[in-house]
Design goal:
Layout lengths: L14 H9 L35 E6 L5 E4 H5 L4 E8 L22 E10 H7 L8 E12 L2 E9 L1 H4 L5 E6 L2 E2 L9 E3 L12 E7 L6 H5 L2 E2 L8 E2 L6 E4 L4 E2 L6 E3 L2 E10 L5 E8 L2 E4 L1 E2 L9 E9 L2 E11 L22 E7 L1
Parallel strand pairs: 1-10, 15-22
Antiparallel strand pairs: 1-2, 3-4, 4-7, 5-6, 5-10, 7-8, 7-9, 11-12, 13-16, 14-15, 16-20, 17-18, 17-21, 19-20, 21-22
The protein binds ligand MTE and molybdenum atom.
Molybdenum atom (MO) binds next to loops.
Length: 356
């Protein structure tokens, strides 16, 4: 399934981008102060409409190439062994709004990332009782939300290989930060795939289907690929690239959100994450002069790492930046990496400040 791709945009934002940006809120960067993002501040990405869903009658069906098909209610899942995991989730399109030309889609600047504590049943626990048939090749996770993209009507569905799906930490989650899932985060059930970009964590999960071929849904083969040129097959988006953000210091100007602060010592706080490996290093720059930030101890295998740096702010206009490196040696680029549909922009953040 391919469908028609939209032509790129240079310059002013469109009415359609504004409508998407109003529906899909980002995490305000001052919320970087929280280890776990309060549920109401967690970023949102909803392709279609939030489906009407009552936890009581909701069932998730497991079928296809399995030893026996079965369905679970939310209450039945809650009686199985549970696991709670702190997971940093980032939208693969985060940073798209800072690329040019940009693909017409959700125009995130940099705020499409958050961390939550998800509770649910490990998928490996569910599949301990249901065997995959020999011919099983992929496991498809179907959401209940439906819409049209590039002229093709579909439900939001994504697949994983059995090895990825059974990986430690992959959950069918029914709670977020200790509360039942909110409607916008997939109530009553969603998949949570730690370390991967957010599109893998299918919300409003109603069916888990085991198939004997490569799944070719719109959200699998047409979208969520890194592509250098239109028409290329591309490379699937999977794990989150190394990335970091700082909470902009000082106070903002209302309309431009430019930062103002007083001269003198200031502590800058931020977070760094990577879906590939632990964070090794975070650097911070004032006007292009880089120094190492101080890393806090890690707080989980799948969660962002807090960092701080002290800066003696001197009067004038300055550009602050931060950049992380993970244990594979991958570091954030200084300029946005090129991608046709604007995925994976992990360029080092820029914050302009006026010191008084
Ligand atoms: N069913 C369904 N699942 C979905 C989506 C969706 O639109 N429908 N959006 C995906 C994308 S692109 C992201 S980034 C995450 C966002 O999860 P959140 O809104 O809970 O932060 O959900 C993913 N799961
Ligand atoms: Mo996303």
């Amino acid at each position: 399934m391919t469908g028609k791709r939209r032509p790129p945009i240079v310059g002013r934002y469109t009415q359609e981008e504004l409508a998407l940006a109003s529906r899909n809120s980002g995490m305000p960067l001052e919320a970087l102060r929280y280890d776990v993002t309060p549920a109401g501040l967690h970023y949102l990405l909803i392709h279609f409409d939030i489906p009407a869903a009552d936890a009581g009658p909701w069932r998730v069906r497991i079928d296809g190439l399995v030893s026996r098909a079965c369905t679970y209610s939310v209450a039945e899942l809650q009686r199985l062994p549970a696991r709670t995991l702190r997971v940093t989730m980032e939208c693969a399109g985060n940073g798209r709004g800072q690329t040019s030309p940009r693909y017409p889609s959700m125009p995130w600047l940099e705020e499409g990332v958050s961390t939550a504590e998800w509770t649910g049943v490990p998928l490996s626990v569910l599949f301990a009782e249901i065997q995959l048939r020999q011919s099983a090749q992929e496991i498809v996770f179907h959401g209940a939300d439906r819409g049209i993209d590039r002229g093709i009507e579909h439900s939001f569905s994504r697949s994983l290989s059995p090895v990825e799906a059974m990986r430690d930490g992959v959950l069918v989650a029914y709670a977020m930060n200790g509360q039942p899932l909110l409607p916008q985060h997939g109530a009553p059930l969603r998949l949570v795939v730690p370390d991967w970009y957010g599109m893998a964590s299918v919300k409003w999960l109603e069916r888990i289907e085991v198939i004997d071929h490569a799944f070719e849904g719109v959200q699998q083969t047409s979208s969520y690929h890194f592509r250098d040129a239109p028409g290329e097959k591309g490379v699937p988006c999977t794990r989150m690239r190394v990335n970091s953000l700082m909470a902009p210091p000082g106070i903002p100007d209302y309309y431009g959100r430019r930062r103002n602060l007083d001269a003198g010592p200031v502590e800058i706080l931020g977070r760094a994450w990577s879906g590939d490996a632990p964070i090794r290093r975070v650097e911070f720059a004032v006007d292009g002069a880089w120094q190492d930030a101080v890393l806090d101890d890690p707080v989980g295998d799948h969660a962002w790492r807090r960092w701080t740096v002290r800066w003696s702010a001197t009067p004038g206009t300055h550009e602050l930046r931060c950049r992380a490196t993970d244990e594979t040696g991958a570091a954030q680029p200084l300029d946005p990496p090129w991608d046709v549909t604007g995925f994976g922009n992990n360029a080092a953040q820029r914050v302009e400040v006026l010191v008084r």
